[in-house]
């Protein structure tokens, strides 16, 4: 009979294992380790993400039930206590580094310049509870973390992620993000900082965001609008010379205010440093910001960042990194097939067939038929 690898094995073939091994060596992640290697830990956590397991016990039980097939993916069954200890103590930088490598690998073959890229910036919160979450405490009764993401709107994938306690402002995390010179960045009011905008503008980036209601623009010129009732005003002017607490505004270049009316009747004052593009193009760019909201919703519904296997900062960082790697693997596998167009439908098929001997490019087709070996002897119509 022809051999077929499991769906899980097929997905794991897309992992940058050589880079993973270098990361393990760089961080000494397997130093003095006797039981659970970093690779086995990663495979166990990835299995949990793809199978929908919500606890360490469920991951361990699931892997034990498929122990015979773990050998083919380079892993072995794990104990709950060992996996828990590894999540708490092993450096999360190994998994964060692998995510960055997978971002680069997923982006290969995209023939475009950075100036054509549209990046969406936003953050989503996750709740934590129980012992060990004091690092993320933001009130007497509540703990939480934030996942800050830069999302490539055209490739439909995250290209950067960082985890902070929930009380860290979005703009504080944004200032630590790398800037891709010449790209378009779209973001909302959580990133309202003239100094940061000036840094983006200096790097040749186009920015699209919203005005706060109290920010006044000193208008220097006004352009005609189409009269379709969508674009109400199109003005060029200067931002206030002073910010809050009498700080000097470092963004002294002209900006553009485009006032639009949405389909629901809401009026938005959009801000951009692009003084030449059609007003409708800027409005459409801001509308694309919804894609990152859909990404957050998809990840929370399909993968596992609602329920955490550990509350320590290290365990949370590892679980989020593995969840984002799982997302990239699913998108890469989906791109390699033509039968399933919906990312959600494809993820559900992967979950249903995860340890079955199937190929990810034929999940909607009947499983391969088992054909008898012609060398087998038969007696009275029965194989022996």
From TrEMBL:
It comes from the Bacteria. The keyword Repressor does not apply. The keyword 4Fe-4S does not apply. GO terms for molecular function: DNA binding; transposase activity. Residues 119-329 form the Transposase IS4-like domain. One of its GO terms (biological process) is DNA transposition. Keywords: DNA recombination, DNA-binding, Transposition. Residues 4-76 form the DUF4372 domain. Belongs to the transposase 11 family. This is IS4 family transposase. It comes from Agrobacterium tumefaciens.
